[in-house]
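Before we proceed, please read the two lines closing this message. Report back on whether the C-alpha cells fit the sequence:
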Amino acid sequence: MSLKSRFFKKPWQHANADKRLAAVRDEDDPELTSALPELAEHDPSAGVRLAALRRINTEPFWLDARLRESDREIIEAADRFLLRAVVSESADQLADARIQWFERIESGETIRTLALKARDPALRQRALERIQSQGFLGDCYASEADAELAAGVLERIDQISTLERLHQELKKSSKSKSKAVMARIQAIQSASGQYDAGLVDAERLVDQAETLARGENLDQRGSLLPELRQAWDRLESVPERLEARFRGALSIVEAAIARPAPSVSDASSAAAATEAGTDGGESSMQGVADAIRSELRRNRKGLKPQKLLADWDRAWNALGRVGPADLDVKNDMLPILKELQAQVQRNITTTSAAANASDSKVKAGNTANVAAFSTELDALAALLEAGDLAEANQHRNRIRGRLHSLPLKQRPRDISGRLQRLEGRLKELRDYQHWSHNEHRDELIGRVEALPDSGQHPDAIAAALKEARAEWQRLEKLEILPGDKRKYAAPGGQWRRFQEACSTAFDTAKPYFEKRQTVQEETLSRLEAFIEAGMEQARDESLGPKELMPVMRKARQAIRRLDDLPPKSRGAGAGGLRDLMNTISKRLDSAFEQVELTKRRLINEARALGQESDLKTAIDRAKGLQADWKRAGQGRRASDQKLWKEFRAEIDPLFDQLDGQRKEREQANQEVIKKIEQLCEQAEGLTGLPDDELSRARGQMQGLVDSMGSLRPSPPALVKRFEQARRAFSDRQAEIRKAREEQAVRDLADCIEAVQAAFAKRIVGQPVDKDRIGKSCEQVPAGLQAAVEAVTDESNDVDQLKAKAEANLESALQIAVEFEFLSGLDSPTEEKNRRMDFQVKRLAARMSERSGQQDLGSELAELEGRWYRSLPLPEANFSTIQARIEKCQAVIRQMMGIA
C-alpha cells in the first residue's frame, strides 16, 4: 500500500455519506468494483448500500439484501428486481432463496402477479395459497398450465357465479377444464342440496326432442323417438312446463313421421315432371316452408297467422306444375297449416265478440254519461249563481276534461251545448271581477318590491317569488276562459312592473344561488365518484358483507340528501344510488344466504352432540362449533337472532352439565391447592440459601417443579408465586454461573499471557515452569494446551520457537480480521485488503451454502480455538493482536447475551 493511499482515502471511503454515494453511483474505478460487495453489505448509509446493489445488479446479491436489510427503500428496490426476475426465468439453484423472499412479501398486487406469471411452479403454488379472491382464483385456473396446480385451484373455488363464468369462457379454449368446472359446480350444488340431476336430464331430453321437431336429424327420427320416450319414462318427477314442452315436440315429430306416402297420381305427376325436365329432387315450396318454421321458432309478439297462411297460398298458387317434392313438403307442413288456420278462426271469434260487447257498452255508457254530466252541470250552475268564480272555473275544467276524454261519438250533444252556455255566463262574471283582480295584482307587486330590503333568507325570497308568480298565474287562469282571443288578462304596464320587481328581488338572491349551485355541482362530483368506487367494490368478488355494509350505509345516507344536488341531476343521482344499492343488496343477499346455510348446518351438528357419550369430546366440539359460528359471519338480523337461539338451545345443556362437574371438581381440589402452597413455601426457602448450598440445590428445585407440574388444578396466583420463586432461584444460579464464567475468561486470559511470557523467557534463555503456566485455569483448551507444550518443550531451541512465532503471525492477523468482521468492528487500515478478501469469500460461501450457515456461538468457538492454536506470537505483535481479539470477544459475548 502506497504512502499516498494511507493518507488520502478513495471517494467511496469518505466519511461523508453523500460523497460516498456519488462515487459509488458515478465512478468506474476497478478498486471500487472490487469494493462493491463490502459496500453493499456493510456501509452504514442505506443510500450507499442501495447504489452498490444497483451497480452489482445480480439476483443473488438482491436476494441476500432482501433477506438481510431493514431499510424500506432497499427492500422495495429488491422486490421490484426480484419480481422481474422470477416472472422472466426460473432458477433451480435459487429456488429456496426465492421462497424465503416470497414469505416476506405483503403486497397483494405482487402476490397476484406471482400467482399468474411466476416461472417456478413451487413459487406459483405458494402465491396461490395466499389468494382468497374467488374471481382471481378463477382467472388463475383458466391460465394455469400445470395440471396439478390447476386442480388445486379449482378445489378452492366455491362461488357458483365464478364457476359459471369459467365454464362459459373455457368452452372454446379448453374443453377438459370446462368439464372439470361443470363437475365442480354440480358437486357444490349437490353438497348444498341445490343440484337436481333429474331436472338436468329432463331439460336435456326436452332439448333433443325440440331439435327433432325443428327438422334436424331427419334420417334419425325413427330410431331416436323410441329412445327419447324410454328415457323420459324413466324420470321419476318432471315439472309440468317441461312435460308440456316434451309432449308438444313429440307430437310434431310423430306428425312428420306419419305423413302419407305418395299416391299413384302423385307418381304419374312425378313421371310427367321428369319427362318435362324436372327431376323432383328439389321443391320450390321448401323455402316457403322453412321461412314459416323460422317465424314460428322466433315466437315473436304480434305474429300474424293470416300472413303466414297467405304466404303459403300465394306460393302454392304460383306453382306452374306440382311435383312430388312439393307434395312431400305440403304433407310435412299440413299439421302446422292446420294449427295456423285454427288460430285465425279463434282470432275472428274473439274480435267479433269484442265488437258486440263494445256496441253494448257504448249504448249503456251514453245513458250513464248524460245523467252524470247533468248532475255536474247543475253543480256548476249553482257555483256561478253563488259568484264563486274560481271554484266554478275549476269545476268547469273538470267537466270539460271528462267530456273530452270520451270518444267523439259518445259525447252527448245536449251536455256540450249546456256547457257552452254556462261558460258564457262564466265569462261575464270574469269581466265583473277583472277590476278587483287588478287591485290584487297591485298588492302582489308591492309585496315583491319589498322583498330586496326585507333581509329574508334567499330561499325565503325565492319561495315568496314563486308564490307570487303562482298567484299571478292563478288570476290569469281565472280570467282567461275558452274562446278568449287575448293571451293575458293583466294590463301590459302592470305585467311589466311585476316582472321588473321579480327580477330585482331575484338579483338580490342570485349570488347565493350561484354559490349553492357550485356547491351542489361539487357534491354531485363527489357522489358520482362515490357511486363509481362503490360499483367497483360491489363487483369485487373478494369483498364480503363487512366491507360492503359501510358502502350501503353511505348510499342510504346519500339518497336522503338528494337536495344537496343540482335539481336536474337529482333523478340521475337517485338512479345511480338505487343501482348501487341494488347491486350491493344482491351481493349481500347471496352472502347472507350462504351464512344462513352454514349456520343451519352448524345447528344440525350441534343437535347431534346430544348423542355423544363423552362429555369432554362433546364440549370440545361445541367450542369448535362456536368458533365456526363466529367465522361464518353476520347474516340478516332477524334470522340471525332466531338461528342463534336455536344453536344455543342445543349446546347450552352441555355447558350446564360441564358447569356441574366443574363445581364438583372445585370441591375436590382444595387439598391440591394446599399442597401447591407448601411447594411455593419450599421453593421460596431454596431461593434464600447461601451460594454454595444453592448450587447444590438444583435437584431439589427440579423435584419441586416436577411435583408442581403433576398437581392439577394450578391456580394462577399460586402458579405465579411458585414461578417467581423458581425464577429467583434461576437468577441467583445464573449470577453465580456468570461470575464463574467471567473468572474463567480472566483465568484464560492470564493463561494466554503466561504462554506468551514463557515464550519471551525462552527467547532470552530463561527456564520456564510448565505447571505454573496452566495453574490459573481449571481446564486449558486443547489449542492452548498445544501452545503450552510448544513453549515448554526443551527440545525446541530458540530459533525454532522464533520461526514458529513468525509462522503464527499471519494466521493470528487473519483470525483478528475475522473476529472484527464477526463483531462488526472496523479493522486497521493496513488490514483492509485482507478483510475485503474475507468478505467476498464469505458472501460466496453464504450464497452457495445458505441452509448450512453456522450460528454466532459456533463461529466464536471456532475462532477462539484457532486463536489458541496461533500462539505464541512475536513480542512486537502480541499485545496489539491480543487487544484487538479481546475487544471483539467482549462485543460478541454481548451480542450473544453472555457478557
